[in-house]
Design a protein that fits this description.
Blueprint (H helix, E strand, L loop, with lengths): L1 H67 L8 H50 L55
Amino acid sequence: MAGFNDFLTKAGALASKAADKAKDLAGVAAVKTKQVSRIAKLNMDISSKKDDMKKAYAELGQLYYEAHHDAPDETCAPLCAQIDEAAAAVAAMEAEIAQIKETMAAEAEAMDADLEDVVDATESEAGVEVEIEVEEPAAPAEPEAPPAPETPAEPAAPAAPEAPEAAEPPAEPDDGAPHWN
């Protein structure tokens, strides 16, 4: 039995050492986690500051351009020329868009006038007067409020079953248009 007690003592000491190591590892893991978290936060802060710098550089460049674009120093002259070219290209594209929109509007007006001429000519040839109405789509109906809950009534006596009535199919309108069931 002495051997068994020695075994238990050694096992207890080993378990104690293992527990101490586990605590040490948990402490190291906590420190590492805090370090990794700090690194991630610092990287986010760095990114934010770099964005601030880009905005400031752009604003500084815009201020310089506005103040010196007519007579920039030789280092900035190519960039000022590039900005001038891009601004001219944007203005030309915006003018083209405006021209296309004007053409589209004129074509739409011409199509409306042509349609009216065709209708007028057809009416006079046939001796018939035609009126065209454009109906606006109906506004969607507002959803109905759910019905109020009914209070339970006392059960009624069962009624005698009635004979089923023969159902007639609904009559289809005879407007010459195909109807799908």
